[in-house]
Amino acid sequence: MIHARGLARTFRKRRQEVRAVDGVDLDVEAGEIVGFLGPNGAGKTTTLRMLTTLLRPTEGTATVAGCDLRKDPVGVRRRIGYVPQSGAAHPEARAGEELVDHAMLYGISKAQAVAHGRELFESLDLHGLWERQPKAMSGGQKRRLDIAMGLAHEPGLVFLDEPTTGLDPQARANLWEHISDLRDHRGTTVFLTTHYMDEADSLCDRILVIDHGRIVAEGTPDALKARVGGDVINVELEQPEEAARVGALVGGLPGADAPSVSGTRVDVRVPHGGSALMALVRELDGAGITPLSLETRRPSLDDVFLGLTGRSLREDGPGSGDGGGTLDAGDRERMGEKHARVRGDERPEGSR
Ligand SMILES: Nc1ncnc2c1ncn2[C@@H]1O[C@H](COP(=O)(O)OP(=O)(O)OP(=O)(O)O)[C@@H](O)[C@H]1O
Q1: Which residue of 80, 125, 178, 334 is most buried, as measured by CB atoms within 10 A?
Q2: Given ligand 1 and candidates 24, 44, 339, which is best to mutate, with the most ligand atoms within 8 Å of its CB?
Q3: What is the ipTM of this complex?
């Protein structure tokens, strides 16, 4: 469904070059749900916008849904759906009419657009909302309407840019079910960007991890976690000063990797969690430190990312960690900036 080789995009900003995407090779097969995971600024949206013809690559080639990205961008657009972070439905429009108008832009007859739209509303849990204005919908309903719009012309491949950002945890889990249903019941191939690890873990068949514009790992969530190996010990302390001391202690455990100290939290990977935990309890006791909590767990995708890049996805912004789904001020500001940028140049290059 998607085959890209050496895809790259450079932006010029105040005489400086930003290599947002730096030679990406990727393959997505029909019927897969593939997650593009990476921290803020890693190059996810830029890659997505190239694959959906909204942005011309500076280098590289790709076929998307059987069409050459450079030679046949119109063919690509006809065959794919794209759901941007900012959504596509006008807040004041009637939801059903908006979807039908959208489908008719693709040359679909009104009768067919209405029939397919009704069916999409039913399968995406939007029954009863045909006449509703998007501005009067919940966040989850709006996102499901955005996805319905992306599927209005029955594409076999749909791109979702951070589909659950800003939703509460229940609405996120509900949307994951709907996205899985698209694949299971309609055979739709889904390529989505996310910086939520739990989303990539629960929803995706395969994950591509991107950092600084390059793919740094790919595989099923389980295969990626198995690559890390060992166990992770996590210590929560009351004071950051204690965390620094504990960081030095855990670094001395047999076979331990370099520990990660973040605020009052310390994480370290060790070959055997059980025996290391016992040794650490003795060390902490000897140093007169009483932690708030101490636990050992199997590696998560965050540990995979930490091992690959030396950074935690959690460090890269609010809500990017363990599934906190509600928006805080930082999140809103970031999304606001993003919306402005995406809306400003959402048209395909060359159409301006
Ligand atoms: N139009 C542009 N002009 C200049 N630089 C840009 C432009 N678009 C993106 N960039 C830069 O390219 C890099 C990658 O941005 P991109 O939006 O693709 O990242 P991302 O992984 O989608 O991040 P996020 O999770 O915040 O959406 C960033 O350094 C960004 O500042």
Answers
A1: 80
A2: 44
A3: 0.95
